[in-house]
Amino acid sequence: MIFFCMLPLSVLLIVWDGHSRCLDGSSGLQLVNVKMILSTGFKGGADMKGHKTKCRAVIVVVISIWIGLAGLFGLLKPISNGCVMTYMYPTYIPIPMPENASFAKYGLYLYHEGWRKIDYDAHLKRLNGIPVLFIPGNGGSYKQVRSLGAESDRAYQAGPLESDSYQASSSLGEGLDIDLTDILLPSRYTSMLDWFAVDLEGEHSAMDGRILQEHSEYVVYAIHRILDQYKESRDARAKEGAFVSGILPKSVILVGHSMGGFVARAAVVHPHLRKFAVETVLTLSTPHQSPPVPLQPSLGHYYALVNQEWRKGYEVQTSRAGHSMSDPSLSHVIIVSISGGYNDYQVRTKSESLDGIVPPTHGFMISSTGMRNVWLSMEHQVILWCNQIVVQVSHTLLSLVDTTTGQPFSDVRQRLGIFTKMLHSGIPQNFISSRRLQLPQKSDHFPDQKGKVDSGLRVPSLSGCPSDSQWSEDGLERDLYIQTNTVTVLAMDGRRRWLDIQKLVGKITLFLSRISHLVLACDFIFWREKGTSASEFSSDKHVVEVTSKMVHIPSGPAPRQIEPGGQTEQAPPSAIFWLGPQDMHGFRFLTISVAPRPTVSGRPPPAASMGVGQFFNPKDGEQVFSPYRLIHSVYSEKVVNLKEDHPLTLNLTFSVSLGLLPVSLSLESTGCGIKKSEFEDPGDLEISRLCRLRCFPPVALAWDATSGLHVFPNLYSETIVVDSSPALWTSSQESDTTSVFLLVDPHCSYRSTIRVSLTAAAGRFLLLYFSQISGLCFAVVFFALMRQAYAWELDNPIPSLLSAMESNLRMPKPFVLLVTFPILFAVLFSCLSSEPLPPIISFSIVSILCYVFANGVVVVLILLSLLVFYAAGTAHVFIRKRWQVWEGNFCFSCIRWFINMSSSFASNKVVRILWVNPVLITSLVAIALVCLVHPALGLFVLLLSHALCCHSALFSHVHTKEFYESGNDGETGSMLYNNKHNGDIGKLFLVNEIYTASPQSTRSYSDTQLDVFHHRHGLLLLHLVAMLMFVPSLVGWLQRTGNGQRFPWFWDSVLCTGVILHGLCDSKPEFNFFLFPIPGIPLRLSLAYLLGGYFAYLSALASAPYRAFYAMAAIGVVSLAFRIIQTRNRNKGETYHRSRKHSHRH
C-alpha cells in the first residue's frame, strides 16, 4: 500500500506489502526517493522539467496561504464602531393563529415596551397604531425587534427631532421629480408604531433557496393576519361598547434585516398577497442584487426570479397603439435600502444597491456612513441596536404618518421625500468629485431658503437663523478689514470680517470651516464694489445671503473646560462652506461673522464658536497617488510635509480604490507658530499638545462612487477604507478611484504619512472576490481535467492534477489561452452590449490574481486529499496486519463464520448482479438522495465512489511496482488476480474494480492503474468542490430536521443528477472522449472540459459561481447520451468507440 505525508522540506513515502513484511527485510518500512513520489501522486505520466516548474506550484500555494492568513488576521481584528447601546424593557405578545394554519412551526409576535406586566388579550384589543412587521435575517430571532420597538416608543412620546437651521443641499431631489421644500415634516406624532415580528425559528435563509421561499410565503400569511387582527380588535372594542374612531390600516410597513429584507421583497411580489397590503419597505444590510453566498443554484435562481418580478412591477403596460393600459403593479410601493458600510463583512454595499431593480422614483440606497445623525459604519448585527441609526429610523417611520388621517401617506412622492429628508445628510453627492458645492453658475441667481431660484437679490431674511442668536447692529466701524489669505472668526468679539475679493483675486477659492458644533452661523453677506456704506446694508439689490449652502459634517463633542479660564483642545469642524470663483463673480467684498449662543441657566457654558477660512488655489493641495506609489508604500511609507499657511484643503486622489487597497493615514503636528527657546526645548510631545490647543483636528472626507461619502473626524491616525467594489465585471470606471478630502488647519504644520495596510487589503480582497474565487476553482479543475483528457487522446500517460495545473500556468501559450481569453471576452461583451465597460487594467489584474489564488486553493485541496489517501492506506495496512494475527484466535472463527454467512447471501442472483455493478448501485443511491433528501448527500456518495476507486487503483499500482522491482514480475499478474478474487477476505478489504487493461506485463498494468488513479482523482476534486458548494445548504437542512421537510428544489436536483451522471459515465479513462456519428466532426471530452472551464470562468467573473453546475450537468447529460448511442451501436455490431493506440505501455 502507498501513502505519504507532506513535510516542510521533503516528502516521505512509506510502502508496505500485503503480508506486513518489509521489502528490504529489516524494519517494515521503505523510504523511496522524491522522484518515485513525483511519479505517483505529483507527477503522473508527465515530468516536471527543472526547478522552475517545480517551484511554480509552490509559489502559488505560498501566495494563496499568505493572502488567506493575512486576510483572516485583518478581518478578525476588533472593530470600534462608535455606536451607543440601546436599552429596552421588552415584552413579546404572541398573536393567536387559526388552528388550520399551514405554518405551525413559525410564529408571530407583537412587541410591547415597558417593565410592567400587562394582560395580553386586553393589550391586543387596544391595538390601533400603525402596523410595522420586522423580518429577521439569516439565523436571526424575532427578539431583534426590541431596539427598534423601544426607540419608536420613546420617539413617539418625546416628539420629532429638532430641525436643522441649515437647509439640505438642493441636489437631494435630483432624479426624483420631488420638490423637497413641499415635503413638510410633522411637528408632532399622532399615531404610534405597532411593531410585529415573525419567528422564523432562526433558520439559515441565506443558504438555501427553499428556505427563502417558505419564509416569503409565511410573511405573506403574517401580513394578512396582522391586518385581520386590527379588524378583530376594532370589533372587540365595538362589541364591548367602547368608543371606536379612526380607520383601519390597509397596509403594513415591512422592515427587514439582512435576508429578511429580501424575504420582504419576495413577499411583495407573491401572487397571494392582497393588493395594496404593502406600500413601504425598509431594509437594513440586505443583499438585493445577488445572494451573499451565491453557491447554491436554486438560491441564485430564486434571486433572479424575484428581481425580475420587481422589474416587471414598475414597467408600464401599453397597448399596441402605445397607450398606457394600467398603472404598474408596484407603482404604489417604495423601498429604501440602508447599508452598514465597510465594517459590514457579510454584505457588500454594491450588493445592497437597488440599481436596475427599482427606479429612482420609487427607492434608493444610502450608506450609514453618509446618513444624517449617524455617520458611522457598523457590523452586520450592530445595525439592529446601534442607537444612532435606530433613533433616526424610528423618527423617519413616524414621520410617514399623515397627521390628518392617522395613517401613512398614500402618495409615493410624499413618502419617498420624507425618507430623503430624514435620512440623507444634505451633503451633495458630488461634493468631493466636483470639489465644490452645487451652487448656481451665476451669482445673480441663488436659491432662496425655499430652494427656488430668485432672479433678484434681496436682503437676507434671518428667519432661518437660530432663535437664540444675538446679532449686533452697531455698524461697520467695529468690523475688521482682513487683507491676508487666511481668516479666523471668533463669535466672542462680535466683529465681522471683511475680505476684499479683488485684492485676493490671485487665490481662486474661499473655503470656510466652522469648528463649533453647538452654534450655527447664519450671516454670510456679499457686497458689490459700490455697496460699501452702512446705508446700503439693507438694500435689496446688492446683497445676497448664502448661509443655507453650508454643509454639515459629523464631529465629536467639544472638549469640556476642566476649570474656569482654562484652555481646552480645539473642537473638530462641524460644518463647511465652499465658494468658487464663479460664485463670487461680480462682487467686491465678503463679510463673515459667527453668531454667539447665550448661556442657558442650569447648563454648562457653551464652547466658543469659531470659524477658519482661506482663499486658496485648489490645485496647490492636489496629490495624485498612482498605483506604483501605492504599491511602493507597502515597503516605504509616503511622507508629505505640510508647512504653516498650507492650503486648508488637501485633495488626495488614489488611482486604486481604497476599497481594495486601504491606506493608513496619519497626521502628526510638527509646529503651530511656537518658537523654540534657545534655553529650553519643549520636545515633540509638548509641541503636539500645545498645537492641539491651537489647531482644530483634521477631518477626512472620502468619496466612492458605490458607497458614497465616508467621513473620518478627529483624524490623527486612521485606516481609510471605503466599501467599494472595484475591478468587477459590473463595476464602472468611477469605482476604480477614490477621492479623499482633508481639512487641515493652515495655522499648523504637519507631517503626514501614507502606507497601504497589507492586512486590511488582504481582508478586503477575500471579502470582495470570494464569489469569483469560488467559481474560478471550478475553472481550474476543469482546465486540469482538460489536460488529462487531452493526454489520453494523444496516447500519452495521464498527468496528475498537480502536473496538469502546473502546465496550465506556464507562460505564454497555456496561460494566455486559459486565463486571459475569458477576460478579453468579458470586456468585448461589455463593449458590444449596453453594460458599462469595466476598468480594464484593474479588472484584468484582479481577475488574474483571483485565478492564481484559486489555483492555490485547489492545490491545498489536492494535498489534503492525498493526505486522506495516506490515512486510508495506514488504516488498510494496520487492519491487514491485525487480520493475520487474529487468524488463529477463536474470535476470528466467529468472524469467518459471519463472513461465510454473508457469502451465502451474496450468492443470491440479485445481489450478485448489484455486486458486480457498483456503478449502478452508486447511481441509484446518489440520485435517490439528491432527489428525495438533499443534493449534498448524493454528491457525498459520488465522492465516496471516487475515493474507493482511487484507493484501489493506487493499491494495485504500488503492488505491481513492488513485485516488478523485486524481480517477481512473472508472479504479478496471477497474484493480483488472486488478490481480487481470493474469496471473502478479498471482497471485504479490496474494492471490486473492473480495470481498464488486463495485466499482460507488470509495467503496463502498473501504469494503467496509475492512469486510473489520476483520472478518478481529478473527478474527485471537481465533485468535491461541487459538494462544498452545497455544504451551507446542508447546514440549513440539518437545522430543520424534525420540523417538517420538503423535497429539495427541483432545479438543484436536476443539476446534481447531471453531475452524478458525469461522474459515473466518465469514470474510466477509456471513456475520456466523445465520437458522435457526425461525419468529420469528433467531439472529444477535452473540448467539453475546455468549454466548461471557460463557462465557469465567465460565471465567476459575473459573481455567479453556482452556474458552473450547468457545465457539469451538461457534460454529464452528453456523456450519458454517448454511452446510450455506443451501447446501441455495439448491439448492432457497429461502434464509434476508438481504443488507444497501445492499451499497455512497455
UniProtKB/TrEMBL annotation:
Domain spans labelled GPI inositol-deacylase PGAP1-like alpha/beta: 127-399
Function: Involved in inositol deacylation of GPI-anchored proteins which plays important roles in the quality control and ER-associated degradation of GPI-anchored proteins.
Organism: Sesamum alatum
GO biological process per UniProt: protein transport
A GO MF label: hydrolase activity, acting on ester bonds
EC number, as in UniProt: 3.1.-.-
This protein's name: GPI inositol-deacylase
PANTHER family noted in UniProt: GPI INOSITOL-DEACYLASE, HYDROLASES, ACTING ON ESTER BOND
Keywords per UniProt: Endoplasmic reticulum, Hydrolase, Membrane, Protein transport, Signal, Transmembrane, Transmembrane helix, Transport
GO cellular component, one term: endoplasmic reticulum membrane
